[in-house]
UniProtKB/TrEMBL annotation:
Organism taxonomic ancestry: Bacteria, Pseudomonadati, Verrucomicrobiota, Verrucomicrobiia, Verrucomicrobiales
Name the record gives this protein: Histidine kinase/HSP90-like ATPase domain-containing protein
Gene3D superfamilies per UniProt: Histidine kinase-like ATPase, C-terminal domain (3.30.565.10)
Keyword match Transferase: yes
InterPro entries: HATPase_C_sf (IPR036890), HATPase_dom (IPR003594), Sensor_HK_TwoCompSys (IPR050482), Sig_transdc_His_kin_sub3_dim/P (IPR011712)
Matching Pfam families: HATPase_c, HisKA_3
Highest taxon, organism lineage: Bacteria
Listed transmembrane segments: 455-475
The entry's keywords: Kinase, Membrane, Transferase, Transmembrane, Transmembrane helix, Two-component regulatory system
Domain Histidine kinase/HSP90-like ATPase: 601-696
Protein species of origin: Prosthecobacter algae
Length: 697
């Protein structure tokens, strides 16, 4: 029979998901619940043992049963708890940061007992999250102690070749040095740093107080450790196999010390062989290639050391990239005063490429590729052939004017940043120099002013000038051609105008004068007594001469006028009508606006066509009226000259001997792209129709 709590859970599950939800009654069931399922507030009814409480009187409580571990959070902590208490927790699931936990709606302390039995664990168990939020027991070597904040301390524990933090919710006790380099057994809660993707970034251990840290084997006395040369660290030595993980002791003179605790020392006597080029097989190397051995040391607590001081240090051996170093080191004895500085080893790039000068103080000459400022100081990129190389200069207000291509003399600590394997041999892949200060950087020679960038810039400038010159020449040629064409048109226009004026003068001085004389003679002859037939003949001849005089004067006026002065075709037609109008002939002009603006030569040709048509009417039509028309019709400019004369024989427009009027009209129409028609109109008369297509431009 189900309890009231289980019935309530079933009803709650039906309300949330439309079907009954199983009640989780084991820690492994809660632990295995996926995050999306945990968000559905699955009911939990669990009995387990308290293993760890995050903070007294509040926070998260970590519990375990025989299947695994989980945690719960109680908004209202009404009953005190301690590790070993057996509790009954009722609530719902929550996703948690890494694995599913419980939101407790109620809990009850059932009684006290022993804490959960810890599971033996190694680094891999912690890193994979196998025992996450469970009590574990680990064994390792104490590396160092630190105090991140008040009433909290951290023990750095070496589990094999890896180091994890043991975070203790208590201050450091007296005699804390006893834990360093000792083999320790620690019972703690397995935990770790979690990212937003629910991934375990790094593991660590949680301990309530230092009582959970037990010393299995005390640390050996530092003063009793054998001082080893730096060159022998982590080397194969069948006669001496030290216990793995414990610290060793060495002595040397300081080459450089940096504020972050990095110290580089050089052995007093030990030397290493530096080949001039990497050998393919073992060789017997000459003694002149020997270089003093050096090593990197990282102090647990940075101290102010100066180059040249003799130091006695003890630390844990560690492969630092390419060569052995000591980490979490301490000074066995106080450093001696500086007797004299340490001289750098004068080297070449080939010697650096061998890797045997790692951690040593070297000096070399190299060409600068680039220099730029970083958050930690200056970084110099160096020209080093097949081995990429850079130099780091600590923070400085200013350095010398460095330009790419400068020849530099650099003094600093040589570091191999990465390596690559070639068979059984490891070769340096990248190297750098750690300069101690601006005094370690000397500019031997400045680069040539002619850099690649400047040469490219100059070539670009020259190309731009050439392109600009070619463009200017092209524009100038176009301008000269345009001005030359305008000048040619002007000269031709002035020549044509002068020729027209010359012809006009000749007409005026010859033909018009002769006609004037003939008119006077005819006037005199009419005044004499004549027969009626002769008088009519004289009168007709007199009128004919008068008409010829009028045409001659019009011709002279047209010749003296500038063709390009005709810009308003409507006004020109009205002027033509006014000049032709007489007592015997009525001339009218009808213009239908709007009319487009016409080029000067087009307006001139249309005016001359209209004048020639009017002249033909005066000569041949015997008309009493002439009508001039101008309008736009379906994109065509229409010019019409209509009369009420005798009409026109179409064959007469094709040209006859001695008659050139119609031929001239056709030629002018051809010049401007117009069409001309001669039409007979009823009841009698003729119409000359000229149509000119106009574009929308």
């Amino acid at each position: 029979m189900k309890s009231g709590w289980q019935i309530l859970c079933i009803v709650w599950g039906l309300a949330l998901g439309g079907q009954a939800q199983d009640v989780l009654m084991r820690a492994a069931q809660v632990r295995a619940l996926p995050p999306d399922r945990a968000l559905q507030s699955v009911p939990v009814d669990l009995q387990a043992v308290v293993g760890f409480i995050e903070a007294p009187g509040g926070g998260t409580v970590f519990i375990q049963d025989e299947t695994g571990g989980t945690f719960f959070r109680a908004p209202d902590r009404t009953q005190p708890m301690k590790p070993g208490d057996r509790v009954h927790v009722k609530g719902t699931s929550m996703p948690g940061l890494y694995l599913t936990g419980i939101i407790a709606q109620s809990y009850e302390v059932l009684g006290s007992g022993n804490p959960p039995v810890p599971a033996p664990a190694g680094y891999e168990d912690l890193a994979t999250g196998r025992y996450h939020y469970q009590m574990v027991q680990v064994e390792g070597i104490g590396r160092r102690l630190s105090v991140p904040e008040e009433n909290h301390s951290v023990l750095h524990l070496a589990l094999g070749s890896r180091v994890v933090e043991v975070r203790v919710d208590a201050p450091l006790p007296d005699g804390m040095e006893a834990w360093v380099d000792a083999r320790l057994q620690i019972t703690a809660l397995a935990a770790g740093g979690i990212n937003d993707r629910r991934q375990l970034v790094f593991p660590y251990l949680r301990v309530s107080d230092w009582s959970e840290v037990k010393i299995l084997k005390p640390a050996p006395a530092v003063a009793n450790l054998e001082a080893l040369p730096a060159a022998r660290l982590l080397q194969f030595d069948p006669g001496r196999i030290p216990e793995f993980g414990h610290r060793v002791r060495t002595m040397g003179k300081v080459l450089a010390a940096f504020p972050d605790g990095q110290v580089f020392i050089r052995d007093l006597k030990a030397e290493v062989q530096v080949p001039s080029s990497p050998p393919i097989k073992p060789l017997v190397l000459p003694s002149e290639n020997a270089r003093p051995a050096a090593m990197a040391v990282r102090l647990a607590s940075p101290q102010l050391l100066k180059p040249g001081q003799l130091v006695d240090v003890a630390g844990f051996p560690n492969m630092d990239g390419f060569s052995a170093s000591l980490v979490d080191a301490v000074l066995v004895k106080e450093a001696t005063p500086v007797v004299h500085g340490m001289e750098p080893v004068q080297v070449t790039l080939k010697e650096i490429a061998s890797g045997t000068l790692d951690a040593n103080l070297v000096r070399l000459e190299v060409e600068l590729v680039d220099a730029y400022r970083t958050g930690a100081g200056w970084e110099l990129r160096l020209l080093s052939g097949a081995l990429p190389m850079r130099a780091l200069l600590p923070e400085a207000e200013d350095i010398q004017d460095l330009r790419p291509g400068s020849l530099l003399q650099l003094t600093g600590i040589c570091r191999i940043e990465s390596s690559t394997d070639q068979g059984f041999r490891s070769r340096p892949e990248r190297a750098m120099l750690m300069l101690r200060g601006v005094e370690d950087l000397v500019v031997l020679s400045a680069p040539s002013w002619w850099t690649v960038q400047r040469l490219v810039g100059l070539v670009g400038l020259l190309l731009a000038l050439v392109a600009g010159g070619l463009l200017w020449i092209t524009l100038l040629r176009r301008q000269v051609a345009k001005q030359g064409e305008a000048l040619r048109r002007r000269i031709a226009h002035e020549a044509a105008l002068e020729e027209r004026q010359r012809i006009a003068r000749e007409f005026h001085d010859t033909l018009e004068q002769e006609l004037a004389g003939l008119s006077l003679r005819l006037d005199a002859a009419v005044t004499r007594p004549l027969e009626e037939k002769a008088r009519r003949l004289m009168e007709t001849s007199r009128h004919l001469v008068s008409r010829i005089q009028t045409e001659a004067r019009n011709l002279v006026a047209d010749l003296r006028a500038d063709p390009e002065s005709v810009t308003d075709l409507s006004a020109a037609l009205q002027e033509l009508a006014d000049r032709t109008l007489s007592d015997l002939l009525q001339v009218t002009v009808q213009v239908e606006p709007p009319l487009p603006a016409l080029p000067v030569h087009v307006a001139h040709h249309l005016r001359m066509i209209a004048q020639e048509a009017v002249t033909n009417v005066l000569k041949h039509a015997h008309a009493t009226s002439i009508a001039l028309g101008l309008k736009m019709q379906e994109g065509l400019l229409c010019l019409t000259v209509s009369d009420d004369g005798l009409g026109l024989d179409q064959t007469s427009t094709q040209g006859q001997a001695g008659h050139f009027g119609c031929m001239g009209i056709r030629e002018r129409c051809l010049r401007i792209g117009a069409q001309v028609e001669w039409l007979n109109i009823l009841p009698h008369g003729t119409q000359v129709r000229v149509t000119l297509p106009l574009t929308s431009d």
